[in-house]
Amino acid sequence: MTVQIELGTQTSGCAAAMDLEELLATRLLVQGNSGSGKSHLLRRILEQSAQWVQQAVIDPEGDFVSLADEFGHVVVDANGTERDIQTIAARVRQHRVSVIFNLEGLDADGQMKAAGAFLNGLFEVPRDIWYPMLVVVDEAQLFAPTASGEFTEDARRASLGAMTNLMCRGRKRGLAGIIATQRLAKLAKNVAAEASNFLMGRTFLDIDMARASDLLGMERRQAETFRNLDRGQFVALGPALSRRPLQVAIGPVKTKGMGSSPKLMPLPEQLAGETAEELLFASAETAPPPIERPAPRPVDPSGVLQQLSAAPPEAAPEDGMDAEERDTAIDAILADMVEDPDAAFQPAAILYQDFQVRCRIGKISPAPDLTAFQDLLSVARAGGAAGSVDDEEWRQATRISAQLPDNMRAAFLLLARAAAQNEPCPSNQAIATAYGTRSPGRARWLLGYMEENGFLVCSNDLRGRRVIVLPDLGWRTEPGDPDAAEVRSS
């Protein structure tokens, strides 16, 4: 399913959109000098996509914490040990909570270590929770620098390795990196090179303009374009944005950052009898107290874990449907999903994201959780419930299938459905598709595994056709050709 989010307007006045699904697969690099509007652009992307995809923001200046009030993000301050941070990051993926990882108040070395631990925690999680997530890293040159600076080599290596994993290997784990930097020359090339989408803002240094034009495939003489951009204007290119360089003016945002651009204001009037010297050199007793900056909010890591565990995946009102209407609507959504030929080969965690979006569109709220979705998906991949069989008998079949690993359940139910309706035994290709693979050899292995563990008995008739008996159910398929080409009938 394609979701378009609106970035702003093109120079022609038309809306400029970004394909969110394509962005998840291809990553994004944002570049622009200080004051070019990078943070405003990131905020626009986060606000527009908040309802569609889980988000995590690496925030070195605490500028994005205001998203929490409007969109429900959890603010996680970088307190505790690196292990605490990794545990929180893993819980973030498990419970699908959008977060702002606030690094404000840490020195450069501490920020790099904390960011590296958090990104590694997002990256190193079990396969069954590889849910799609946008990972936004502001001031990415701080975490993936090209050269040494005011940080230790251990911190640089840990942070750079985590950023490289995010941009190079994160896609397979559902992580879509969006990195923003003031200067391309300061950002490690192996991190920047993995992005396929680009939004280039105002830039003045020749080396940065040349590198930006190279990334966009523009001629060097066109690099002057980046000097002439106004604040909030970017040149967009990439499969999620545009197939040719396109100038975009970023639209407004709902939330505001914690910092702001300096504004002109008149100087204060001095009171009668006071001189500037007296104000500057007043004794310590009469001088005003120094401004105390608030320290970062102390956060107990265990409290954050409890907050994440308690956070609901969806906060939506009841849809008002009765049980039968709801089940019918959900079955229709699942049937439509499995019609896609590629759906059989995608993991349940990825399909669940699409399922939730379809439930929102269909006003089904709250949507079934992941565990219930996996049960429903297994039945849908098997072709649906066996309508000619008593409901209690079919529920018994689903209970037996629950004893198998999740990825085998659809294949077992496919066989059970055929046996219940006295249909020919499904082919190896049909069983392999239900199992989530294109290899008929894996289907033969799967049948052997089920037979070895007592779930079924395989035999062949005199014509070489396969017959499968399900002893716990007392069902038997009709003979079927194991090498038939058709996948399955619906």
UniProtKB/TrEMBL annotation:
The molecular function terms in GO held by this entry are: ATP binding
- Stretches of Pro residues bias are at 287-299
Is DNA-binding found in the keyword set? Answer: no
Give the start-end ranges of region Disordered: 287-320
Q: Look up the domain of life of the source.
A: Bacteria
Keyword Hydrolase carried by entry:
no
Using the record's annotation, list all stretches that form the AAA+ ATPase domain: 24-213
UniProt xrefs under SUPFAM superfamilies: P-loop containing nucleoside triphosphate hydrolases (SSF52540)
Task: Note the Gene3D superfamilies from the entry.
Answer: P-loop containing nucleotide triphosphate hydrolases
Q: Which UniProt keywords apply?
A: ATP-binding, Nucleotide-binding
The record's section on Pfam families has: DUF87
Q: What is this protein identified as?
A: ATP-binding protein
Q: Which organism is it from?
A: Hoeflea poritis
